[in-house]
Amino acid sequence: KQEVTQIPAALSVPEGENLVLNCSFTDSAIYNLQWFRQDPGKGLTSLLLIQSSQREQTSGRLNASLDKSSGRSTLYIAASQPGDSATYLCAVEAYDYKLSFGAGTTVTVRA
Amino acid sequence: NAGVTQTPKFRVLKTGQSMTLLCAQDMNHEYMYWYRQDPGMGLRLIHYSVGEGTTAKGEVPDGYNVSRLKKQNFLLGLESAAPSQTSVYFCASSYDGDYGYTFGSGTRLTVV
Fold it and tell me: Which of these, B92, B95, B63, lies nearest to B80 by C-alpha position?
C-alpha cells in the first residue's frame, strides 16, 4: 500500500522568504505526482503535475522536483506572499488510476 | 464553466438516515472518484469508476455505495448514516493520468 508523508505538517514564514515543502512516498511505481493547494473550507486546486519520466515542473514562482528512485518530491515557492497561505497537498497516482494523498503542509506567510 | 459540481454543499443527517451525494462533470472525463477528508488524515479514496457502468472499491468503502449510470454523473450513497461518516466529501474526475485531476468544491456532511 502506498504511503505518502509530508513534512513539516505546518510552516510559518515571513513574507518574501522561499518555501520548501517535502513529500515522500514508499512505492516508486508511480504514474505521476501532483501538488494541490487547498484553502480553508474549499476544494483542491491543481498546482503542478509531474509525470514519472520527468524530473521537475515549473509554473511561475512554483517549482516541483521528483526523484522517483528515492521516493521524494519537493515543492519550492519563491518569494512567498501572504496569498500563498494555504494547505499544500502532495498526491501520487499509481498505474491503477488511484491517487494516494499526504496529510498536507499548512503554510502561513506573515506580512 | 467546465468543471466538477457537487450537490449538496452542506447536509446534516440523523443517525440511520440515508442520502445520496451527486457529482457531475462536463469535461467528458472517463474516471471519477469519491474521497473523504478528515482532520489530520488527508484524503482517502472511497470508491471510483473507470468508465460508465463501472465502479470499484477504494481504501474506505464500507458503509457507502456508488453508481455510474451516465458518464457525466457519479453518485455516492449512504444507506444508514453513522456519526463516523461525518466528514467532507470530495468528488474528482480525470481524463487520464497525463492531465491530472479536477476536484469539486466538496460536501460537508454531519451525522448526529
Answer: B63
